[in-house]
């Protein structure tokens, strides 16, 4: 039969059943726990209620746990001169229940997984009524050293509950791992499709940039250059403008509206916008992709040349 781990409390007493194993057999979960200097254990009521399926923790406490076995975190820790544990989950007004309160909530639970533990509790009570006490059997394995604590055999119902719940958790872990692997594969496939679409759009943009600008027909009205405001309004409709793209757009739109082309080094635009040269280049590339501007080669000193993309 399985042997429980044994840990001493603050006064040196040995627990016949390790508290973690005991609570796990009762609730099917490793719930948070505070152990006080006198060896008493307190548990967040919301954690226990969640694991046992009590949807309304306040009602569950009011119906099944007496006042003596529930307190706020501030009251419990303050009684021992301790500070509130660190972490967002530990609030001063957090409701805690004692180990007896936890057992009362388990007895009130209707989940089939709690039945072996509840049967063992009933067996303990019946044995105490019949014989006046209940004693765990000592394990067959004797202590390795003289004076070592005596090991006790874990009750069969508790051991079976732990084994069954551990197996259930293993199955859930396997299902979770499988779901995570499938999700990763789906993300990879989606990313590959997105990258292919981006490359296709870049190729289309590059080909469009190589096409000559249409010339006005003889006798046709000359093309009226757009104003800066009209350019920016048009660009806002063409793409989702981020703060960085908008900063670049505000700098280059007046130049394009006035001169019809932009011959400014990237370093100059970066200095005026406060962005890096790399980020400026990415913003200009985005404006190209959405047909706001088009590339017309470069100047002798290497600065790119952009013009408005007008049909």
From TrEMBL:
Pfam (any one): Bro-N
Upper classification of the organism: Bacteria, Bacillati, Actinomycetota, Actinomycetes, Kitasatosporales
Domain Bro-N, first and last residues per copy: 16-132
Name listed for the protein in its UniProt record: Bro-N domain-containing protein
Originating organism: Streptomyces eurythermus
InterPro entries: BRO_N_domain (IPR003497)
């Amino acid at each position: 039969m399985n042997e429980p781990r044994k840990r001493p409390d603050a006064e040196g007493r040995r627990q016949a059943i390790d508290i973690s194993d005991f609570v796990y057999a009762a609730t099917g979960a490793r719930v948070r726990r505070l152990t006080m200097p006198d060896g008493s254990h307190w548990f967040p009521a919301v954690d226990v209620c969640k694991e046992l399926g009590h949807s309304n923790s306040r009602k569950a406490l009011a119906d099944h746990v007496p006042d003596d076995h529930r307190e706020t975190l501030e009251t419990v820790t303050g009684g021992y001169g301790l500070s509130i544990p660190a972490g967002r989950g530990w609030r001063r007004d957090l409701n805690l229940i004692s180990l007896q309160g936890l057992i009362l909530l388990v007895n009130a639970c209707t989940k089939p997984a709690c039945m072996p533990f509840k049967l063992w509790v009933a067996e303990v009570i019946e044995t105490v009524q019949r014989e006046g006490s209940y004693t765990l059997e000592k394990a067959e394995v004797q202590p390795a050293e003289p004076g070592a604590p005596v090991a006790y055999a874990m009750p069969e119902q508790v051991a079976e509950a732990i084994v069954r719940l551990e197996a259930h958790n293993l199955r859930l872990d396997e299902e979770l791992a499988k779901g995570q692997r499938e999700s990763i594969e789906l993300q990879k496939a989606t990313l590959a499709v997105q990258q292919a679409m981006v490359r296709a759009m870049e190729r289309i943009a590059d080909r469009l940039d190589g096409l000559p600008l249409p010339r006005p027909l003889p006798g046709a009205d000359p093309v009226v250059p757009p104003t800066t405001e009209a350019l920016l309004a048009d660009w806002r409709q063409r793409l989702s403008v981020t703060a960085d793209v908008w900063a670049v757009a505000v700098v280059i739109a007046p130049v394009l509206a006035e001169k019809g082309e932009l011959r400014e080094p990237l370093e100059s635009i970066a200095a005026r916008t406060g962005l890096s040269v790399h980020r400026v280049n990415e913003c200009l590339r985005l404006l190209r992709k959405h047909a706001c501007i088009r590339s017309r080669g470069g100047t002798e000193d290497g600065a790119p040349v952009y013009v408005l993309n007008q049909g």
